[in-house]
Specification:
The protein has about 210 residues and is of the alpha/beta class. It contains eight helices and seven strands; from the N terminus they run E-H-E-E-E-H-E-E-H-E-H-H-H-H-H. Strands 2-1-3-4-5 form a five-stranded parallel beta sheet, with no helix packed on it. Helix 2 links the parallel strand 4 and strand 5 (about 80-85). Helix 4 crosses helix 6 (about 165-175) and helix 4 (about 130-145) packs across helix 7 (about 175-185). The chain is globular and about 55 Å long.
Length: about 210
C-alpha cells in the first residue's frame, strides 16, 4: 500500500511519531504538483493550510484534506474527499477525527495503515478542535477579567486538567488566527461562541 502526504516539516515530524503497519509505504511531498508522480498511490493526504487547490477534482483515490473550519458541504468536494485536522499538535494524537461522505473508504484506508480513527459529523472544528478553541476562548475571557495572568492560567489548566498545554500556550502553537477563524465560523451558527475581545485585539496589527 502506498500513501502520499503533502506536509510541512513540523507536520512530518508529528506523523513520524505515529506507528504504521509494515506493509505501508509513505512518500512525503512538498507541493501539490508532486502528486502526479504517484498515480499508483492508494490514498493522498493534503495537510497544508486550507486552500483552494486547483485540480483537486482530478484525484480519484481517497483524499484526506486538512480543513478544520470549512465543511465538505461548504467546499462542495467529491465523495472521495474526507476532512481531517492537521493543526499543530493534533497529528501526534492517537486518534484521527475524520468527516467523510464515504465511511467505508475511510475504514478501508485507516485500517490498512494501522491508524485509529473516529468518524465525526461534518461540522466546523470537527470535535477536538472545537473544544480546544472554546477552552482558549474562555481563557481569554478570564484574562480580560484580570482574574489571573496568562502564565498562571496555563499552569493551573495543565495541573488541574492534565492537558498537554495551557490554553495560551496551545493558542500559540496552533496559531491564534486559526482559533479566531474557527470561533468566527462557529459564531455564525450559534451565538454561544462569542469571541473574546482580547483575541481580536491581539490579532489587530499595531
Amino acid at each position: 500500500m502506498l500513501i502520499v502526504i503533502l506536509a510541512n516539516t513540523e507536520q512530518k515530524t508529528e506523523l513520524l511519531s505515529k506507528s504504521i503497519n509494515e506493509n505501508v509505504a509513505v512518500k512525503y511531498v512538498s507541493n501539490y504538483a508532486e502528486f502526479s508522480h504517484y498515480n499508483n498511490a492508494d490514498a493522498f493526504f493534503i495537510l497544508q493550510d486550507e486552500l483552494d487547490i486547483p485540480g483537486i477534482n482530478q484525484i480519484k483515490q481517497p483524499l484526506f484534506i486538512h480543513s478544520v473550519t470549512s465543511t465538505l458541504e461548504e467546499l462542495n468536494l467529491p465523495g472521495n474527499v474526507s476532512r481531517i485536522n492537521a493543526w499543530p499538535t493534533f497529528l501526534q494524537r492517537n486518534l484521527w477525527e475524520v468527516a467523510a461522505k464515504n465511511n467505508v473508504v475511510v475504514k478501508n484506508i485507516f485500517e490498512k495503515i494501522g491508524w485509529k480513527y473516529l468518524l465525526v459529523p461534518d461540522e466546523p472544528g470537527l470535535i477536538a478542535a472545537r473544544i480546544v478553541a472554546m477552552i482558549i476562548n474562555e481563557a481569554y475571557f478570564t484574562y480580560e477579567e484580570k482574574i489571573s495572568t496568562k502564565e498562571e492560567i496555563d499552569v493551573a489548566m495543565k495541573l488541574g486538567t492534565n492537558y498537554p498545554y495551557g490554553p495560551f500556550e496551545w493558542a500559540c502553537k496552533i496559531g491564534l488566527q486559526n482559533i479566531y477563524n474557527l470561533l468566527k465560523a462557529l459564531r455564525q451558527r450559534n451565538e454561544r461562541y462569542d469571541i473574546a475581545l482580547s483575541i481580536t485585539e491581539e490579532l489587530i496589527p499595531v
